[in-house]
Predict the 3D structure of the following.
Amino acid sequence: MRAGGGSGFRRHQDYPYWYCCAGPAAKDIATAMIFLDEVTVENGALTIVPGSHLAGPVPRDRAEPTGLLVDAARTDVGGAVRVEAPAGSVLLFPGLIVHRSGPNTTSRDRRSLLLCFQPDGRPPLAELPYRSERLADLP
């Protein structure tokens, strides 16, 4: 996230995005987030809702243009925790975990690499078409 200009990202699950590509197999996709810089509250640390992945796909905000963001009014986000970490740390999380990031209000960028994984034998995600009409299948 760029210094001073990053606006953060509202609560979401990665699952709906992956579902548009992989359908029901999206439940098996996980992300490794490698922090290249120190992660602090001030530079937009990720906030996760532990255990939220156990509820499956949560209700989405249908008024939001992409259809990918969580409807916070209909989703339990209690117990959310911020993930602050030194550069070089790795956070692994399933696509169903509810998470968000805050704005970067510092003078330094907050950089990270996101690597997504799925079980062997599946077609590469880059080869799967994104079909937004699949969102109609989700809450």
Observations:
- The beta strands are 9-12, 30-35, 46-48, 81-83, 90-94, 99-101, 112-117.
